[in-house]
Amino acid sequence: MNNKTTSFLYHFLSILLAILFIFPLIWMLVSSMKPEAAIYSDMGSLEAFLPSMNVSEWLMPYREIFNRFNIIRYLGNSIFYALSVTAGSIIINSLAGYAFATIDFKGKKLLFGLMIALLVIPGETIIITKFVITERLGILNTPLAVILPLLATPLYIYMFTIFFRAISTELQEAAMLEGATKFKIYWKIMLPMSKPAIATVGTLSFIMSWNDYIWPLMVLTDSETYPLQVAITNINNTQPVYTNQVMAILTISTIPLILIYVFFQKHLVQGLSSSGTGVK
Amino acid sequence: MKNVKGIFRGFTGVRPKARSTIQSSALKENATGFLFLLPALIVLGLFLFIPAMMSLYYSFTDYYMLTPDLTEFIGLENFRTLLSDATFRTSVGNIFQFVLFIMPIQVGTALGLALLVNRSRRGTMFYKIAYFSPVVMSLVVVSVLWLYILNPASGLLNEILQTIGLPAQPFLSSPNQAMYVIIFVSAWQGAGYQMLIFLAGLQNIPEEVYEASTIDGANKWQQFLNVTLPMLKPTSLLILTTTLIDAFKLIIQPMVMTQGGPLNSTLTPVYYIFRTGFTDRQIGFASALTVMYGGIIIIFTVLQRKFVGGDKNE
């Protein structure tokens, strides 16, 4: 009896919390699939959480917002920025991690220490002088301004360093005896062996770039170059504002992330908890 | 880049007979190591190290972006202004309010969710997905979405409140409520991710420990206090510290939801830096803000590392 009550309580609490956590996502999704007026007339009833009864109306808000704004362009920009950052960040951070892990060069200790020290600089507070540098480089309002700063991250270099150190040196030594260059060893042996680290750094980099908002807002002035996140607040401030169309663009921006989380969830937790124990 | 590569080839291709192999291979290692690091060094130098140093330097000047030639060295003037600046004080007060509330709420919720999910057998996958669902939305999406849900006049939440007989609330348009709303939305967004990390921590606790404590006659609550919590200590510390540092950097939610208002009640230091430096172009003063506030965060980070990671050897 007592057991049944606790079990019931647990399930009741679980469901209540589940509703609290998921209702905004569902409301966003269904509100993007009904006419504007229906969002507000449905609000007093449970129909607020159902899409339009008329299936042909589901895509209407999407059609309308695609007609009003160049959504394809924003989506394309976001995908281009995120993929460039992902590829670049994997390569640049792993190259540096490889150097720290396997090559003995002068000043290595100093540079590694400096990099660990850089970890404590809160990037968000230096955006102003970062902007000044970007302006002096003459890359304001270009994709480079958005992509370049995200290509190297002390934490990811650290993760690759730890990962490469753990790989046995036998294969590398054998390859070296056969005359392989350091780069060849990195490219042909180390990288293919570090798929977990690549998946973690790649996923985190993709999400970081996709969600980036303040920095692109600062360095991009031409709306043609906007990523989705900047376009969203822009659209939300452009009269006339239609709730169903805003919900449509929010949904469009969220779908790629849902896919990423579904396919790479494992690596995200592994990455964070392992890097955590590593830093600890 | 090409030049450096040329030098590198020089080291490897032409190997003078007189030079010992050891020496030349050491040189080669130096050059190779440097080359592998070069791209990262350039990026980190340009967008992290130099900007940090520039902030330090500009904080002693009156650099105004539109008249860079008139920039003068003004010593500690910016810091004097800053200390008597009411807006800066408000923003620091706001962020401490945010940190103080978000820490227990978000981390506590995350732990609670992990315990719930870890316990129940049926429907675990569904609950996990539900609790995690806010994480898949970016902060901009979350902020805009809640802006609509929380709209005092036509929002979903007031509609629900009135349906169950409660009075409608002003939410973000009230200086007394706005920060608490932002705290709630932020905790709601972040708890699911930390739940997963707690869950990984929970699953690492060996079953035998529980069995042993059951044999010793411990009840569920004693088990939680004496087994689960201590075993979760590393995970909890990791989560608490990352939450702390992240919380200090709050800017997107207030920027999108309230523009720092009403009456500066949600203005945060990073947002204030953005406004003075970017909107008003006062690079000098913004740099002083950066040094001051960045300094506060760095102190917290270093203290936390000392406190948490006493056995760190790197």
UniProtKB/TrEMBL annotation, chain A:
- What GO biological process terms are annotated to this protein in UniProt? transmembrane transport
Instruction: Enumerate the spans annotated as ABC transmembrane type-1 domain.
Output: 75-264
Note the PROSITE patterns from the entry: ABC_TM1 (PS50928)
From which source organism is this entry? Alkalibacterium subtropicum
InterPro entries hit by this protein:
MetI-like, MetI-like_sf
Classification via Pfam families = BPD_transp_1
This one is known as Fructooligosaccharide transport system permease protein
Q: Which residues cross the membrane?
A: 7-30, 79-103, 110-133, 145-164, 185-210, 246-264
Quote the subcellular location field of this record. Cell membrane
Q: Which GO terms describe its cellular component?
A: plasma membrane
Domain of life, per lineage: Bacteria
The topology of this chain with respect to the membrane is: Multi-pass membrane protein
Keywords tagged on the record: Cell membrane, Membrane, Transmembrane, Transmembrane helix, Transport
The family note in this entry says: Belongs to the binding-protein-dependent transport system permease family.
Automatic annotation (TrEMBL), chain B:
Q: Give the bilayer topology.
A: Multi-pass membrane protein
Keyword Transport listed? The answer is yes
Kindly list the places in or outside the cell where this protein is found, as annotated in its UniProt entry.
Answer: Cell membrane
TM region(s), chain numbering: 34-60, 95-117, 129-149, 178-202, 283-303
Q: Which InterPro entries match?
A: ABC_transporter_permease, MetI-like, MetI-like_sf
Entry-linked SUPFAM superfamilies: MetI-like
A Gene Ontology term for the protein's cellular component:
plasma membrane
Query: What Pfam families does the database record attribute to this sequence?
Result: BPD_transp_1
Highest rank taxon of the organism: Bacteria
Q: Which PROSITE patterns match?
A: ABC_TM1
User: Matching CDD domains, A to Z?
Assistant: TM_PBP2
| Gene Ontology biological process terms in this record | transmembrane transport
Q: Which residues form the ABC transmembrane type-1 domain?
A: 92-304
What keywords are annotated for this sequence in UniProt?
Answer: Cell membrane, Membrane, Transmembrane, Transmembrane helix, Transport
Q: Which family does it belong to?
A: Belongs to the binding-protein-dependent transport system permease family.
Protein name, as recorded: Fructooligosaccharide transport system permease protein
